[in-house]
Structures are given as C-alpha cells and as structure tokens.
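User: I'm putting together notes for a lab meeting next week and I want to include a structural view of one of the chains we've been expressing. I don't have a solved structure, so I'd like a prediction I can at least talk through. The sequence is below, exactly as it appears in our construct file.
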Amino acid sequence: MKKLFFIILISICFSSVYSQKLQLGLKLSPQFGWLKTDNPTIMDNDGLGIGFSYGLIGNYFFQDNYGINIELCHSVLQYTSSYRDTSNSLQIVKWNQQYIEIPVSLKMQTNEMGGLTYYGKIGISPMFNTSAKLNEVNNKEEINFFNASVLVGAGVHYGLGGNTLLIGGFSFHNGLIRMNKKNMDIVNDHLDGNGLKEVQLKPSYLAIDLGILF
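Assistant: Thanks for the context. Below is the predicted structure for the 214-residue chain, given as structure tokens.
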C-alpha cells in the first residue's frame, strides 16, 4: 500500500512539473504618476508626471491558465505637487525619483482565441529608492528607501509564432507607504508649523505595459 501511495505521489508531482511553463522576456512601460496626500491643505498633487520603466519579465505557470508573474525593473517616476508658502504664494514642486521595482503578481489568462490571449494580474510591487531630486536638487536622504504598491493589471498577448509573444496592457500601481520622511528641509523652510511632518505623500502611477516574451 505504501509503495502504491508513493508511486501515485511521484506521478502527481511529475505531472505537475511537466505542466509548469516558464516564459522570459523584456518590457518597456511609459508611466503617468501622481502623489496621493492625506493633507491637501498643506501639499496637494498638481497634475500628472510622465516617467517610464524597463526591465525583465518572468512568467511561471503552475497551471495552463494560472501562474506567477515576476519582474525586475528600473523605474523613473515623476510627480508634480503644489503648496502655499508662508506668504500664501502658490509654489510648484517637481519630484524626480528612481527605483528598483520587483513586482510579484498572480497572473490569470484565457486560452488562445484567434491568436490572442487575454490576461489579468494582481499583486504587490516592492520598490527600492536609488535616486531622488526635488526641483532638480538632490533630496535622496529625505526619501524613504523602501516603498511598495498594490498593482492591478490587464492586457493581451499576441502570438508571433513558436513561443514568441507580444505584450500590450495597462497596470495601476496604488502606493501603500509614505514616501517622504518627516523632515524635508527643502520644503519645510517655506511652510508654517510642522511642514511636511503632517503630510503623508504616497506615489501612484498608471503604466502602459509593452513587451515581448520568448
């Protein structure tokens, strides 16, 4: 009985491994970013900033229509915000930040229909800051090193023949963690009271996902 159970277990494992599918590829994503603020009376978002990301894609399917999507990307994010200084004059602030992102998501896709495969994904994207500027002045020390966002995306794969697929889609990255440290001298000098200590700024963006899988 134990031998039979062992044979069945090995057969299941072998079948699972055989059905697994690995895809690797490259991506380029134009991005439209903004800042969420919990205190817009002190600092508020002021329009969309245009950025981009590029990097590697990996899909690991444990079933035909379900798998894990992992990416390794270099992202350049830009935002614009505004605030009233101590003389009540409107000031515009431009943020330029760079991150290493490692998005991890559950990916679900349809069967191929007319050469097209539709997919959806949901997950989380850890972000590690590598550079930060505020109005072209380096303020990396005033930005938290770690951040993260929840991501939701959808799109389509177009088969070019063999295992090669083109990717086109959209993804929304909703910021979870405060970006700014409590002390930001560049802005605080122009604000009454505690300045940005009382404001949580969280970066979010919408991406147009383009890529190719092999």
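A couple of points you could mention at the meeting. The chain has one domain: 21-213. Residues 2-19 form the longest helix (18 residues).

User: Perfect, that's what I needed.
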